[in-house]
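Task 17 of the worksheet. Students: predict the tertiary structure of the chain below and write it out as structure tokens. Keep your answer in the requested format; marks are given for formatting as well as content.
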Amino acid sequence: MDAKGRADECFLEGQKRLAELSKVKDELYDQKEQALAHREALIGLQLQGIVEREANIKEHASRLGKQEQQITATQQEVNQMQSRWSERIAQIAGLTAQEARDALMSQIEKEAAADACKLSRRILDSAQSSAQEEAQRIIAIAIQRCAITHSFESDSAVIQLPSDDIKGRIIGREGRNIKTFENLTGITVMVDDSPGVITLSGFDPVRREIAKRAMTALVANGQFNPSLIEEVVSQAESQVQESARAAAESAIKKAGLLTLLPEAVLDMLGKLSFRYSYSQNVLAHSVEVSLLAGLLAAELGMNIAQARRAGLLHDIGKAMSHENEGSHAQIGADFLQNNSESPAVVSAVANHHSHQMLIHDPYSPLTCLISAADAISAARPGARLEAMQSYIKRFEQLEHLGNSIPAIQKCFALQAARELRVFVKPSLASDEQCKLIAKFIAAKVQNELQFPGKIRVSVIRELRCDEFAE
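Model answer:
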């Protein structure tokens, strides 16, 4: 073949590759257009919700205006009645107008304070009965606004590429390679304009780890075809399974368990090594709970081996919580029961997070022990990447906020600063006012401090009378 023939052949091959690249570009452009259209639809729905909320706010403001007018009229009637009472008391008691006014004002203040406390309690009771529905609505709105960044950080893995040229090989002709990879791993591969990286996205941490190892190996190899992808994914699955099994066996040794676990339980326990909760590795947390439960059981004279076993398995439901409906405690208990685990351990796993028992619990001491060990592990300083300095500062800020109120006698931060226990002066606060003080402190904590989780505010009023007999 002469030079002109070879040049024509190269030209035709180049035209063919340009056509393929143009087709891929058009497909990516269509995908972006669809994503933009979907996002515009979501924004339209959110704007519609905002308009409806504004209408509700205007209607509520109108009702408040009418109520304010009624309160003003009532206040005028009260002032007129107060004037008549002052004159009558002065006539009957022979007091001056100023003395009668002072006596009347003192009586009205006491009655108004008592009525305000009763009204506040009725309002709080009514609000608590309907608060859950409103809280769910608010949380749903917050999730819509905040879930994007958090989900990306929690459910994705970034793979570094030696060059952007390899992205075409990852996609493959007509997307064959990327489709094969996604079908085998169950993880979405996002190839965008970000230089030198691709993103793997999926909710299952085990599948995401398999996809990460397989893609890393393929990128290092530099070759992509369906048969090679299938082989590498299979190898990655074996590696992850071996890694999970090794992690489970290591956890059993650290927990000091003498009896072996069934293979299904061992495999499920190993999956916890890829799971994190509040930046805390779930398997490491389970080992810690197991050791703490063993120490507590030894102090209480309980079965140490059983306590350690229940502590190690208490969060096993988190390894499959995305696959089944229900809480991780109930899912884990059902799984252990199906694998012939003892009733005591099953019951402790099911009820370690519940104020109301999920199943009948004849072994309540073990359940209480596991619940306590779980709380200790989660609340200790540094367990969830909380610096010691910020941990101490949290105590100081809570106690300073409580002591800033005049009616408070003492104030203590307890349970890793998850509870603020307040002692009020009985001479400055009544039993009815203690509820208002607790509400006021809780509002100050929520508005002025920024801490994760809930902080309980407990207000205690104690009157002591001492007499000496000689």
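Marker's comment: Residues 3-93 form the longest helix (91 residues). The chain has four domains: 95-154, 156-239, 256-379, 388-461.
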